[in-house]
Amino acid sequence: MLSIAKLSFSRPNAVILDSVSINIKAGSHVSFMGQSGCGKSTLLQLIYGLHEFEGQISWQGVPLYGPSRNLLPGHAQMKYLAQDLGLMPYLTVVENIAYYLSAHTPALLQRRTNELLDMIEMQALAQRKVKSLSGGQQQLVALARALAQEPEVLLLDEPFGQIDTFKKNRLRRNIFGHARNQGITVLVATHDPEDVLPFSDTLVLLKDQGIFAQGDPVDLYRNPKIKAVAELFGDVNEIPIKLLKPYAKMDMDLLVYPHEFYVSETSGLAVRIKARYYMGSYFLYEAQTMEAMLTLFFNAPLPLEEGQEVFLNIPLEILTERIGNRPAP
Ligand SMILES: Nc1ncnc2c1ncn2[C@@H]1O[C@H](COP(=O)(O)OP(=O)(O)OP(=O)(O)O)[C@@H](O)[C@H]1O
User: Fold this and answer.
1) Ligand 1 site, residue 13, Cβ cutoff 6 A
2) Strand 2-11 to strand 309-313: parallel, antiparallel, or no bridges (unpaired)?
3) ipTM > 0.95?
4) Is 16 in the pocket of ligand 1 (CB under 6 A)?
5) What kind and span of H or E run contains 23?
6) Shortest-distance Cα residue to atom 13 of ligand 1
7) R_g of the chain computed on alpha carbons
8) What SS3 state is found at 285?
9) Which domain of life is it from (predicted)?
10) Residue 301, by phi and psi: left (phi above 0), alpha (psi -120 to 50) or beta?
11) Is 40 in the pocket of ligand 1 (CB under 6 A)?
12) What is the pLDDT of residues 281-324, one digit of tens each?
């Protein structure tokens, strides 16, 4: 268990984290999200022991301290992968990875190196010097090198930030899957819901120097109780329920993702289309409600025209789920 109790940290001009407490089960994958500057990277750095702090952090019952109590920065059982990757630029990809591998025979070393090269899909670049690689490729070598060290805890700061979209999902599956098989506890600071929804056991939202919400990412996605949570996953609309269902007895705002609407020709919430964005497999529309002049966003597979009037609806099960989960007044 990674236990964080009443953790506080300030910079000269600002409190960054104020009395943060959380327990993280060994072997679990946890993502930290929140607006830029909310302290995600700082939290990972504090766990890794790079700054002095107030409060307690312990791993498997053993207290962890800041740099003044450690000979070298960082804890041996952890690996922290920051934006500056700390690679050895004049060595090759394979040398950077194999440097940290413990293997008793050359054949085993070769096999384990190959496994890691396969994982990051960089066999073809194995003999290239790291300094000649792109930022994204260096990021992958750093990930493989971190995993080669078989840490108990892996702390990743925006791990796929520089990787191209076309490879990203496959690499995420490889790397998070490898960490899961090895029983490594993974903590990720990210802005990207695709790092979180398919891979994390827990999502933690940082806001106002503390933990604002935490839970199963799928629950938080499906039943966001407040807009700040829904917004982590992209665009979201906040709509007074009476606009959608005029006969509704309660007064509340409903959070609706753009893909949850469906378009009807005949009935629903009347909107006029203001703008259309082609998104590949669908169109994203900006529209204005005819009543209350509210701006909202919805997705549809069809090319609708600017100025066109359509009716929007949301499936009954989403309506019931959201109403059932509304925050207490
Ligand atoms: N070396 C530093 N010196 C002074 N202030 C810093 C330093 N590093 C970070 N900060 C400040 O601390 C706050 C938290 O920064 P941190 O990098 O932890 O945020 P973050 O949530 O990881 O942001 P991002 O999503 O943009 O990476 C920010 O206000 C930032 O400006």
Assistant:
1) no
2) unpaired
3) yes
4) yes
5) strand 14-24
6) 37
7) 24
8) strand
9) Bacteria
10) alpha
11) yes
12) 999 999 999 988 999 999 999 999 999 999 999 998 888 888 77
